[in-house]
């Protein structure tokens, strides 16, 4: 969610042609009438900041900028962002003049004195984007649907809307200089390697230490492109290559069960001699926000397996672990988010309830039929103590949990750390006071973001050495 406003314009160079490497790269092709030579799925567009974007992003961009319904919503999205960004600038100007600063972003939250002007501005731009998205009539139509007539049409419209939003975000943010970005395919879906020092992921001198990451985005948005800077920064800090898993997104590509199944298959590929060829002892899995839920779901699957060997460690950044708000502390945090938090998620309480219902519909049905049958589908609420007790806990690798003290999901992280610690799991908790959701993405604007990434890198290095 933190990269919701990552791209505001598209600047592409001409399509280029490069030799294909089977199984590792998606080939490029020049224009041609020969379908054997130039298949649409092979076309990639070169971007100024790194390398290229693939067919998925190209289609998203085309959909976004040719869809009248989405284009009609762009002015309102921009209006919300402008309102919030302007409030942030006024607040900072008041502080510079010695004034109190006052309210920001249409709410009663005020910024901590430690925030820089650019950091506050970026936070409020994202808040404005998310607030505009949450006001969407398409989401409200799905939320008010019945199980009878009209459900399929409402779901189709939601799918169109979120595909358009993904298109607006498809260009993304540049990775750190020197990072080599390579696309591969796992189980018919894209995955991306980000390797420091410009080496290919399978080069003999590339790091063996590996981070397998699931990006955030509320299970419906974002991609490797939106998270490229965060992942490349983490790879550099850890001295590791990073595999970013492009799991299916709701509602059009899949629900939670398809997402988790693909994540499990990606881990199996990564550890297979015929796939990534990485020893589990050299792997740390992780995720931010919704990706953190998938990372924990993967760990749960591996803890339940008598065959698969788990990773050396787990890194969670602002994980979204109780999306149904089953825990009272989670519900309390969301009820007070708009009035008490400067986190940019403060205005999305209702829309995330819609997302939860979209993503976890079949999981909820399974829970109703057999509440403790976790072997088929993990629960929505990863704060359930029975998930972490007994022999299962003994198979859990060390964990690092980072979160912002000002974010609405802080209560979930605190409860998770407490439950894991009481179950005997080795867990390190790092709360960064006064910072918002997945603040690590602001590492260029906020020193604590850089410090958190360095700490996560040190954790990856340490657990991979000792495993």
TrEMBL record:
Question: Which GO terms label this protein's molecular function in UniProt?
Answer: hydrolase activity
The species this protein belongs to is: Micromonas commoda (strain RCC299 / NOUM17 / CCMP2709)
Instruction: Give a single Pfam family match.
Output: Abhydrolase_3
Query: What family does the entry list?
Result: Belongs to the 'GDXG' lipolytic enzyme family.
- Write the record's keywords in alphabetical order, separated by commas: Hydrolase
Matching SUPFAM superfamilies: alpha/beta-Hydrolases (SSF53474)
What is the name listed in the Swiss-Prot or TrEMBL entry for this protein? Alpha/beta hydrolase fold-3 domain-containing protein
Q: Name the source's superkingdom.
A: Eukaryota
Carries keyword Hydrolase?
yes
**Limits of the Alpha/beta hydrolase fold-3 domain:** 211-440
